[in-house]
Design goal:
The chain is of the alpha/beta class. The protein is 38% helix and 18% strand. It has a domain of 53 residues. Helix 3 links the parallel strand 2 and strand 3. The chain is globular, with a radius of gyration of 12 Å. 14% of the residues are buried.
Length: 79
């Protein structure tokens, strides 16, 4: 798919965890990724939160769609 994964792309995970600790409720992800979406999926599942992910790039949407469950909805946005 032409996507390059590298650990440096996950450097924000610690800040993401801290942000989710401070804000209650469900989570909206606008733009998915092969690192962040899976991380958010498991974090929200562990915390009992609903996660909705929106993506407008078909390759990224196909990756994120793997995570879809009753607690995690994944939507493709054409426009």
């Amino acid at each position: 798919m032409g996507m390059k994964l590298h650990p440096k792309y996950c450097s924000y995970f610690a800040m993401l965890v801290k942000a989710l600790e401070k804000v209650p409720g469900d989570v909206l992800e606008m733009g998915t990724g092969p690192n962040s979406t899976f991380f958010l999926h498991w974090l929200c599942l562990d915390q009992g939160r609903q996660l909705c992910s929106y993506e407008n790039s078909e390759p990224y949407y196909k990756i994120a769609k793997v995570c879809e469950s009753p607690a995690h909805k994944v939507f493709f946005v054409e426009d």
